[in-house]
Design brief:
The chain is mainly α and 294 residues long. It has one domain: Orthogonal Bundle (MetI-like fold). The chain has 13 helices and 2 strands; from the N terminus they run H-E-E-H-H-H-H-H-H-H-H-H-H-H-H. Strands 1-2 form a two-stranded antiparallel ribbon. 23% of the residues are buried.
């Protein structure tokens, strides 16, 4: 029997080393901190699961978690339909398609802290276009003084920044659909709504699953944009989980509770993504089985 050549595993070794240094070792450090009370760099006391119990009883954490879930669901509810609509309206080929792709992708090239600064200026009533326009219309708008205005502004900022990602993913999915499907639809006299419902939307299911997971995970970890725009205020209106964690670790230097909260935060993201992925998989399977019966 010819021996199997195992030398190909050496190609994977650099990836394993990079992952170990960038993910595994920091994770082990966080686990170590989560079970200790770090009094000083030289003195540490093992406390077991005490920090986990303290974090789970934290009412501010519960409020931040609720704000985070509400924000992430609002992001998905707005960006996914808007991204699909934008992709459907983009030209399919020619120089116009190339131009539109570049214009749509421009916001994705802007760094997160710059996005927060742009909207910080944009919403000001004295020099910002949005703030000045709303003031001229007589709308009482202040993202620094009103909790609702701040929350809506952060949501609008995220929609402006990340909807193009959903649109580009959907555009790629639409371009991968063979022309034969559209030709058959034209022969059958199908309307545009029927083409979208029975051809485009089913073919976009895999792309949409990726878009939903990416946007959910990213919005659930949002930090830089609302920190620059509102600083988490007014009050705690835009203090999401990541900023609450930063305040705990850096502002208050409570490394033990912050580490415990980091692990809980990590598990929450994994659990929600697992539930979301399995739900979308089941919906896709049910639709395929229903189409097969038809």
């Amino acid at each position: 029997m010819k021996p199997i050549n195992q030398k190909a595993w050496w190609l994977v070794l650099p990836v394993v080393i990079c992952v170990a240094f960038s993910a595994v070792l920091p994770l082990m450090t966080v686990v170590n901190y989560s079970v200790q009370d770090i009094i000083s760099p030289e003195r540490r006391v093992f406390v077991g699961t005490e920090w986990f119990a303290a974090v789970m009883r934290d009412e501010e954490l519960h409020a931040a978690l609720w704000r985070q879930l509400t924000f992430s669901l609002a992001v998905l509810a707005v960006e996914i339909p808007l991204g699909i609509a934008l992709a459907l309206s983009m030209p399919a080929r020619g120089w116009r398609a190339s131009l539109v792709l570049v214009l749509v992708a421009l916001s994705l090239l802007i760094p997160w802290n710059v996005v927060g600064t742009i909207w910080q200026i944009y919403g000001r009533a004295d020099i910002g276009l949005l703030g000045a326009a709303l003031a001229w219309l007589g709308v009482d708008y202040s993202y620094t003084g009103d909790a609702t205005d701040a929350w809506i502004t952060v949501l609008a900022m995220d929609v402006w920044h990340w909807t193009p990602l959903v649109a580009l993913l959907c555009y790629a999915g639409l371009r991968s659909i063979p022309d034969a499907y559209y030709q058959a639809a034209r022969i059958d006299g199908a309307s545009r709504l029927a083409v979208f419902r029975y051809i485009q939307l089913p073919k976009l299911r895999g792309v949409l699953m990726i878009a939903v997971l990416l946007r959910f995970m990213d919005s659930f970890m949002i930090y830089t944009e609302p920190f620059v725009l509102t600083g988490g205020g007014p009050g705690n209106a835009t203090t999401f989980l990541s900023q609450y964690l930063t305040q705990k670790a850096v502002g208050q230097f409570d490394l033990g509770p912050a580490a415990a909260f980091s692990l809980i935060y990590f598990l929450i993201i994994l659990l929600l993504c697992f539930i979301l992925y399995n739900w979308m998989q089941r919906v896709g399977t049910a639709d395929r089985e229903g189409a097969g019966h038809e």
